[in-house]
Structure formats: structure tokens, C-alpha cells
Amino acid sequence: MHYTGRFAPSPSGALHFGSLIAATASYLCAKSVNGKWLLRIEDVDKFRIKKHSISSIINTLESYGYQWDDAILYQSQRSEAYQDALDSLGKLAYPCTCTRKFLQKQTPAGTYGYIYAGFCREQISNPDAPQFAMRLRTNNAAIYFNDTLQAPLTQNIESEVGDFIIKRSDKMFSYQLAVVVDDEYQQITEVVRGSDLLDNTPRQLYLQQCLGYQHPSYLHFPTAITANGKKLSKQNHSPEVDPLQKRLTILKTLNFLGQQAPTIDEFSTLEELWDWAIKNWDRDKIPAQMTLSENYPDDTT
């Protein structure tokens, strides 16, 4: 099977160092085996989009030397496909009129947030209802997931998460539905992403099963954190990558991923650095940890 990977940033801000770790890991997993690397813009949630973020993301990736195959896929243009997938679920999908305030009072808190107890499972869809979300009916069965890098994970979605939302009450499709439909559409064979998304995987596997989709394999690399333990993210206001430090930044992503790259003096151009990285990429060297300091290791200068 021909390898196809992807990088799927959300345009909620500029790319930071953690973003480039994800881009580098997914890029090299694909390019090192002559596979395809696709770029997907996860702009399904219009309320999180920041002005000019999409062009900023694309320009940064281009300037840093990432080369994607095929046209960029925009989730904002895929609503019809998501609705078709939701419709195909039949009675597995049902409307939910529970408010956030009600759920906070009535549902227990679990490891992954509030556990939805199926209050609306028997509710019949009412197109005249002012607001309702769509949830996916789960069952009392464990989903076993064997990640390429991290320890195996077992999750009973019904008891640990509950029936989860696939279309929000504001008519936005959920991340879980959109990512599953797009991975199938783009024929993604392996999803390479940060470990902060590891616990989303059982829900995506279950949704793939319900839709009759193929299961890609998954590799969750360590999430980059600051010295005080905060995740590098747009939400935590992590700084944008430096446009004047491209080679150094890519070297830092390689070393974060355990690749033991030479010093910056060994590469006179960004193209030379990428050529070395593709030829020498070893996924087995990625640290099998959930988190790592953004400065790990600290010998890249």
C-alpha cells in the first residue's frame, strides 16, 4: 500500500514550534518512504479562525521548505460530505437538546470531560426545535488501540466519554466527524500527530467502524511543553516560529524527535538539510514519551 500522510493545522493562529514538530514528523514519515504528504486546513470551526491565519500557515510552510502533494483540502468546503456521512449513520445518530449548563449539573466528570449519560437517546428529531446537536450512539464495548509509539490504550467510550457530539448545536460539524471523513476521503494510511490527541483516537476508530471506513495506523509523538509544563499551543500564546531561523528551527524539530542531526554548520542551505533529514529519518528514534520539554535535547546550536 502506498503511504499517504497529512498535516492538518487549524487556522486559529500562526504556526509555533510545536506546530512544526507535527509538520516535520508527518512530513518525514511520508517522504522517507517516497509517500505522499497532504496539507489539510481544519477550518471547519469558523468561530476559531483568526484573520490571515490560513495564508500565514501556507506561507510559513512554503518558506520552511515543506512540499505537499495534491491540492490543499479545506474543511470549510466539505460540509456536504460531512452531512452525507452523518446521514449514513442512520439511527446511530440522534438529536440532543441538552444545554451545557444542564450537563454540568447532571453528568459526572471523567478523565476526558463530562460523561454524557444518554439523556436524549430516544428523542425523535424535531426540525422545529430551536437548537439541537447530533450525537453518536455508543455501546458498552472496549476499543483497544495499539499506537505505533505510545503504550496501548483501551477505552470504553460509553462509560468513559458517553455518546459524543458529531454536529454541534450551532450547526458546525465536530472535529471527530470531520477528521474521520477527511482521512477516508484522502486515503490517509497513517496519522502522525501529537500525544495530546491520543485519547481522541478510540472515538475516531469507533466512528470509522460505524461508517464502514478503513482504519489508518497512528503514531503519536511527544507533545512539546514549556519548562513550567505548559503545552506549546496557540491557546497558550506560543510564539510564532522565527522566519529568519529556518535551518535552526528545523534542526531543533529533528533533535526533539530524536534524530541526532548534525550541527547547523553542516548545512549551507535549507534544501541540504531536508535532503539529509529525508535520507536519515528513523522513526524508531522518536522518544516514546507523552511529553517532552521544547528544549529537548538542548544541543542544536
UniProtKB/TrEMBL annotation:
The keyword Cell inner membrane does not apply. One of its GO terms (cellular component) is cytosol. Its cofactor is Zn(2+). InterPro entries: Glu-Q_tRNA(Asp)_Synthase, Glu/Gln-tRNA-synth, Glu/Gln-tRNA-synth_Ib_cat-dom, GluQ/Sye, Rossmann-like_a/b/a_fold. ATP binds at residue 234. Belongs to the class-I aminoacyl-tRNA synthetase family. GluQ subfamily. This is Glutamyl-Q tRNA(Asp) synthetase. It comes from Leucothrix mucor. The lineage of its organism: Bacteria, Pseudomonadati, Pseudomonadota, Gammaproteobacteria, Thiotrichales.
